[in-house]
Amino acid sequence: MLFFIETVISGLLAGVMYSLVALGFVLIFKASGVFNFAQGVLALFAALTLVGFLNGTTPFTHIDNPAFAMPAWMAIPLTILVMVLIAILVEKFILRHLVNQEQIILFMSMVGLAYVLEGAGDIIWGSDVKVIDLGLPQGAWDWLLDTHGIYVEKIEMVAAGVAGALVVVLAIFFQKTRIGRALRAVADDHQAALSVGISLRTIWIIVWSVAGVVALVTGVMWGAKSGIQFSLSLIALKALPVLILGGFESIPGAIVGGLIIGVGEKLAEVYGGEVIVAMFGRWFEIDPGIFTATENWFAYVLALVFLLFRPQGLFGEKIIERV
Amino acid sequence: MDAMAQTEKSPETAAETPPSILSVNNIEVIYDHVILVLKGVSLEVAQGGIVALLGANGAGKSTTLKAISNLLYAERGEVTKGSIVFKGDRVDARSTNDLVKRGCIQVMEGRHCFEHLTVEENLLTGAYTRGNARKEIRDDLELVYTYFPRLKERRSSLAGYISGGEQQMTAIGRALMSRPTMMLLDEPSMGLAPQLVEEIFEIVKLLNREQGVSVLLAEQNTNMALKYAQYGYILENGRIVMDGPAKELRENPDVKEFYLGISEEGRRSFRNVRSYRRRKRWLS
């Protein structure tokens, strides 16, 4: 039983990470109808920039200069500033010119953006694997280990806490503020939003900045776990099944979808083999270890099942139709 | 000296014709760089007046209104010739956001409420350009509710679930929240029961009188529009083919025949219809 709980908890914590990536997608998809393929690269770029500032790396030369190393309280706001700058550039050079274009054109522009950002990250900060040190706690959470015998990594708890806080802040921002209301209005009907004087350009910049901040959090959390390197940008692919599960337009959907996939993966990895053997072992000889490396495929299979039976996802926006 | 001369002169001109709040001068609109939709449209809206812009489907009414509000760029259209003057300033290159701040707002055709927002949130989005003046915005919300008491009852329902008439009221109320001096109403009667249409027009008239909102009204419902407007323009194939005081238009035999469906001499032959169209187009 204890082992089961441990599996679920570690699944939930991994799921939080997936949710974070998916969150960036949902934000942008809601406000500008763009499927932001570049979210993963955005996370990589944000993390690289932060590490660059922390280590005092001189851009383009990739040489660390401790004299320019910044403390975290300075590096983080500066990185956020860089993300806002990217948001402004994206609006100015991409979104503005593609108003009212086909979905596929917007999507291709995002693929392009992903490559540009990836290249820019390489050129500016170098392509070697970097270690991020924000002074986040490492190792097991002793209290839980001592009292209940459950092993949980501290960093995962921190990541879950940060993600939770981020979601609460975003929810308040969306529901209670003037800008948040305008964002939801744009998501609903951008023409009507335009007609009441909401500036789409401003809204896009805000949304991309928020997505940039979410990307920064994602990048730092994943980076702290497995180092900051190119493979970080591939987590964007992981967001796809999460979104299919949760629905492309739903923030709660992104969160729940991430958690389901996180837990599902871990459970499948640990118990899947046994279950299969118990079910079909009578007729076939099955290796109980067939469910390995679930993180590579389980989420996609789950997404396929969802596409068959509930294509709008768990929390997909209800299509309101008056009769 | 010049300024003096002008201030002396202006009361005189004002006495002759009421000052116009909006004037559109010979504008041409092209969509997607190739499709010519408006071929030189000019119109004036007097300060505090209600002006009707009439015409059949596809005549260019909505395009004219969108050109004024500068909503065309989102549809890949642009004004290529002519000028638009609002309150004495040229606004053809101004953004919609800027126009709303100056007091000119459009209520789009087909209501366009934010369906997943509540009625009250819909109204509040109308005050977006006014920043965070909470107290005043609260007061204006109450004002909107006095004009549309029905909306107060439904304030917390999602706008997607309310009736068509209520949605139209929400759309007008939302525009009102920006404290406009000029409202561009695009087919407020669309898809509504006749009784409801009358109710909405009455409210528009009331807003015009009590809040001093000038109105440019694009309508297919010619009969209703000419009842409430003081002046009317008739648009056909992207050109103004006729204009005049609403009373005269109502009595004009051609308008009667083609837009009001009343004929004095029974059916006319198709040839006469064609000659009418030709005549009107080139005379205007």
Could you characterize the architecture of this molecule?
The complex is a heterodimer of chains A (323) and B (284). With 323 residues, chain A is mainly alpha-helical. Chain A folds into two domains: 24-228, no CATH class; 249-323, no CATH class. Chain A contains twelve helices and two strands; from the N terminus they run ααββαααααααααα. Chain A has helices at 2-32, 39-55, 72-93, 103-125, 142-148, 154-176, 178-188, 190-195, 200-226, 235-246, 251-280, 298-309, and strands spanning 57-58, 63-64. Chain A has a two-stranded antiparallel ribbon. In chain A, a hairpin with a 4-residue loop joins strand 1 and strand 2. In chain A, helix 2 (39-55) runs antiparallel to helix 3 (72-93) and helix 10 (235-246) runs parallel beside helix 12. The termini of chain A are far apart. The mean pLDDT of chain A is 85. Chain B has 284 residues and is of the alpha/beta class. Chain B folds into two domains: 20-103 and 180-246, P-loop containing nucleotide triphosphate hydrolases (Rossmann fold, 3-Layer(aba) Sandwich); 114-179, no CATH class. Chain B contains twelve helices and ten strands. Chain B has helices at residues 2-16, 61-69, 96-102, 119-125, 134-147, 149-153, 164-176, 194-210, 222-228, 246-251, 253-258, 270-283; strands spanning 20-31, 35-46, 50-54, 77-86, 89-90, 104-107, 182-186, 214-219, 231-236, 239-245. In chain B, the strands form two sheets. Chain B has a six-stranded mixed β-sheet with strand order 6-7-8-3-9-10, with helices on both faces. In chain B, strands 2-1-4-5 form a four-stranded antiparallel β-sheet, covered by helices on one side. In chain B, strand 7 (182-186), helix 8 and strand 8 form a beta-alpha-beta unit. In chain B, helix 4 packs parallel to helix 7. Chains A and B meet through helix 7 and helix 8 of A and helix 3, strand 6, helix 4 and helix 7 of B.
